[in-house]
Design a protein that fits this description.
The protein is of the alpha+beta class. Helix content is about 45%, strand content about 20%. The chain has eight helices and ten strands. Bound molecules: guanosine-5'-diphosphate.
């Protein structure tokens, strides 16, 4: 959600539909709720609902129980290059209304279009928005509502990073995944590992060492290279198969003694690791550990799928 022209549709197109940021200049304004089901092409099984900026919560046809009842995360986009006072009012209205219906919603504020701001200005804007939004909540006695803030732009990787953080909060298996990644890296002398949803370049988990933006960008770039090369050279006309499968892997050596190593985990997920070239001597061990890791991931999600099927059966009966 967010005001008109704050960048909602652009974010959705860039993150989930591979639109290049420049093309978003020509997007038409959203004037009705757009529901985008991305569960077929990606690991993240959810729908994104893009709301027109001018939506009026007090309109009797606005069914807030239906809209907020099943909502996992509410992303509110604020244009940081514009005057944001009206956006802050709308944010306040939206979160208090949504919280009344559903107290489990995660509220995520994207302070967006920060590519136009200097580093100092970014920090100052974030501090100002953070303080004002929380003061508004405190003044109306709603300080139990927690807002998370992210600085984003579609012109760099920050939007993918922010969306990764949002999605991770919605994955109940996250601690298990982090644990598996920790075990994998410590037994394979890997410096950093990300588990990526390949299509969206969202990372659904990483080990518990801190994430630095540069490593994340490198891994995203690697995914782009692998997908491009696979799509150009990996398609076989006689098979209607995808250009890459769970056997796909790729290795890139950088001239600073670092290696990027990608292995496909399943149709949607890939593991991308960063490690020192010297430690890659033991590739056999890494590959063996990876197979154990992949098996564990499959088991985690088999459990999830079983649980989902049971819930569906129960819902239908
Ligand atoms: P919506 O009405 O909230 O869906 O907004 P749109 O997605 O249509 O975006 C409005 C305008 O903002 C478009 O011209 C986009 O190109 C521009 N825009 C979106 N994201 C960014 C960003 O991160 N940085 C900059 N500079 N412009 C952006």
């Amino acid at each position: 959600m967010g005001l008109r022209r704050s960048g909602k549709s652009s974010i959705q197109k860039v993150v989930f539909h591979k639109m290049s940021p420049n093309e978003t200049l020509f997007l038409e304004s959203t004037n009705k709720i757009i529901k985008d089901d991305i569960s077929n092409s990606s690991f993240v099984q959810f729908q994104i609902w893009d709301f027109p900026g001018q939506i009026d919560f007090f309109d009797p046809t606005f069914d807030s129980d239906m809209i907020f009842g099943g909502c996992g995360a509410l992303v509110f986009v604020i244009d940081a290059q514009d005057d944001y006072m009206e956006a802050l009012n709308k944010l306040h209205l939206t979160v208090t209304k949504a919280y009344k219906v559903n107290q489990t919603i995660k509220f995520e504020v994207f302070i967006h279009k920060v590519d136009g701001l200097s580093d100092d200005c970014k920090m100052e804007t974030q501090r100002d928005i953070h303080t004002r939004a929380n003061d508004d909540l405190a003044d109306s006695g709603c300080d139990q509502i927690h807002l998370s803030f992210h600085l984003t732009s579609i012109y760099d990787h920050s939007i993918f990073e922010a969306f990764s953080k949002v999605v991770q909060k919605l994955i109940p298996q996250l601690p298990t995944l982090e644990n598996l990644l920790n075990i994998l890296i410590s037994n394979s002398a890997i410096e950093k590992a990300f588990l990526f949803d390949v299509v969206s370049k969202i990372y659904i988990a990483t080990d518990s060492s801190p994430v630095d933006m540069q490593s994340y960008e490198l891994c995203c770039d690697m995914i782009d290279v692998v997908i491009d090369v696979s799509c150009i050279y990996g398609l076989r006309e006689d098979l209607e198969a995808a250009a890459f499968d769970n056997q796909s892997s790729s290795l890139i050596k950088l001239n600073n003694g670092t290696i990027l190593y990608l292995r496909e985990v399943n149709k949607f997920l890939a593991l991308v690791c960063i490690l020192r070239e010297d430690n890659f001597d033991r590739q056999g061990v890494i590959d063996y550990n990876f197979l154990c890791f992949r098996k564990a991931i499959q088991q985690v999600f088999e459990l999830r799928n079983k649980a989902l099927t049971t819930t569906n059966i129960n819902n239908h009966s």
